[in-house]
Amino acid sequence: MGTASSLVSPTGGEVIEDTYGAGGGEACEIPVEVKPKARLLRSSFRRGAAAAGAGPGSLPRAAGAAGLLGASFKSTGSSVPELEYAAEYERLKKEYEIFRVSKNQELLSMGRREAKLDTENKRLRAELQALQKTYQKILREKESALEAKYQAMERAATFEHDRDKVKRQFKIFRETKENEIQDLLRAKRELESKLQRLQAQGIQVFDPGESDSDDNCTDVTASGTQCEYWAGGALGSEPSLGSMMQLQQSFRGPELAHSSVDVEGPFANVNRDDWDVAVASLLQVTPLFSQSLWSNTVRCYLIYTDETQTEVDLFLKDYSPKLKRMCETMGYFFHAIYFPIDVENRYLTIRKWEIEKSSLVILFIHSTLPSLLVEDCEEAFLRNSEGKPRLIYHRLEDGKVTSDSVQQLIDQVCNLKKAHKAKIIDHSGAPAEGVYKTYICVEKTIKQDILGLESTDLETKDLGTEESIPEEDDFGDVLWDIHDEQEQMEAFQQASNSVHELGFEKYYQRLNDLVAAPAPIPPLLVSGGPGSGKSLLLSKWIQLQQKSSPSILILSHFVGRPMSTSSESSLIIKRLTLKLMQHSWSVSALTLDPTKLLEEFPRWLEKLSARHQGSIIIIIDSIDQVQQVEKHMKWLIDPLPVNVRVIVSVNVETCPAAWRLWPTLHLDPLNPKDAKSIIIAECHSVDIKLSKEQEKKLERHCCCPTTCNALYVTLFGKMMAHAGKRGNLDKILHQCLQCQDTASLYRLVLHSIQESMASDVERELMRQILCLINVSHNGVSESELMELYPETPWAILTSLIYSLHSMRLLTYGCGLLRFQHLQAWETVRLEYMEDATVISSYRQKLISYFTLQLRLWCLCRGLWKSEKQL
């Protein structure tokens, strides 16, 4: 054990199995000679030193260990050459030197890099400081520039304010002087008329030889300086040249400022007042619409029997779509309306309502006429007071005798055929041929009698193809938009459609005082709560003015609900400008830029006021429904021409603050006595008499402003009349008395109509139709509803629309179903559409429908163009 050779096996190596491996049993061979390492020597010296420093008690053990270690080294050194240790030492020393040199070089390079980075950092810091100084300088320049800008803007605003103030003062001065000139001219005309009467009586008033002017001409001209100043447009204002033009005219009879007829013509001796009335009546021209064309819709009502069911089916399947495409291409709706054979006569009232609205009634008849249809035929053909087109298709058959009722109806229609535009088609062939003849006659009637188009040679056309309608219609110099004009006409008719007087006489006098007041005068503000009767008051007063003062020119516009086309400020100004151009007999290009329209409208107003002899009244109903009305109606603030008056109606709650200083006519609620009388009169119209106790309940109920509201009272009366016909008057009266405002009463109307429906399907249809109309922009047509709900029969849809229309929920506007009042629109939204997802779903339904229709239209248009090219 004293030598290192005893540590190994004499056989040269020992094989030791690896018991730690995962495989197990794998052997490794340990070499016999192991070269000592420097770490082994150092560890041995460390252990020896540790033993030497252990203390006196450990000296024997340390000496023994040292002897043992020395013996081991001696034995090892004897077996391993010392040269190997020296070589190892030299190698390690070289490696250490190389490592030390490389690290020193790295440290030097890092030092140089650090010095370079410090230099770069100092340079960047200097640049940063320079940039910060530049930034601060630019910031100070910006602040000074902004301050200068704000000061310039303040000076510009001050200058603009002063300029507007000077312009208004000048306009006031100008209009005041023009008013004085108008008075002088009026006095001059009176003197001239007196002189003419004296001359007619043979009295010599002055010597013609001593007069510098012509016997029949008296020229009066203002000073040249004033004319040049006004004609130059002082202060950028459009001059009102009415007085200057009139002073420079020669008065040989009436001044024909509106006409191209020369003053020396045949009208020179016409009395001036009579001529002014005639010219004003001529200027009140509006587009003429056919009486048969109800609300921009060609309504074709079909009456048939069991014997002619085949003809009606063929007409609806093959020819009704063609007539629809033809009418829609020309800008009109087409509805072919029919009811099933009503054995129980459930739709009698609705059928009469449809006959009244219909543009054309077609009777398909064979040999017999059921008694249920006799009243409808008499209503359509014999009581046709408006002379609407009527058509009878009479199928003849050999061996069958026509009944007396059919023959009597045909004879009566023949006697009235010329007056009532009735046509009879006698056909004895196949039903398809008879329906084809009916289609030809209907197409010609629609084009000539209903739409008023020129007569065309229909016999030479290929009736199997589409109509050859031009790609772009040229209407020439038409100064009005037909659609907007008809929409306003219908709005005016609906606003004035009231059979009950609401005590407006006291308001009429105030409006008359406005017209007679001396100029200049600001607009008159007609204010009141929702449903207080502002639209009714204005429409009734317009009718009175047109009857009593034909020389007054009235331009009116009725605004619908917000976000509709009638509430677009640019469209309102465009329409009024077109009316001014129409009445000024001026044909010129009209800009479509809304900003320029707002600028040009006051100029057109002044031009027309200079030519028009009477007053000009502009009436805008519900002007507060226009978005940003103060911005787009700034012309209302400026002084108006001397003969122009403006009346606007607003809701009390939404009236702009700047307008509250104007002269105001506030509509008070009805007094309880008038409210009660209106409800009773509505009940009497359907032969319903209220008891004394019920009248007392009404009198006690109508005692506050909300229950005396005009719309509330009207709706209350409609509910009572409807309940009386159904036989549940007491129940509905009790429910109505629980409603304290118009919104709650409209909610009761919805529930009442729903209860009258026969099934849940009809109730759901009512809810969906109201929601679709609510989210639409201007409304939805009946044909669109039929395409959205194809499973719905015409009888059910028409019955539903009749109920909603009679209860003041829906109305027609240019063929579209829309809400009659803003409160009805809000009630439906609160009742059915509180959730935002419901609104988005119905809106998406309309978008999808119209997107599909647009694609189909583009496809048909492309096919039509390709066929035309071929």
UniProtKB/TrEMBL annotation:
The protein, known as: Nephrocystin-3 isoform X6
Coiled coil spans: 114-201
Keywords on record: Coiled coil, Repeat
Record bears the keyword GTP-binding: no
Record PANTHER family: BETA TRANSDUCIN-RELATED PROTEIN, NEPHROCYSTIN 3
Region entry Disordered, spans: 1-20
Keyword Cell inner membrane assigned: no
Domain (Nephrocystin 3 helical): residue spans on this chain: 673-832
One Pfam family here: NPHP3_hel
Chain ranges of the Nephrocystin-3 alpha-beta domain: 293-452
Domain (Nephrocystin 3-like N-terminal): residue spans on this chain: 524-648
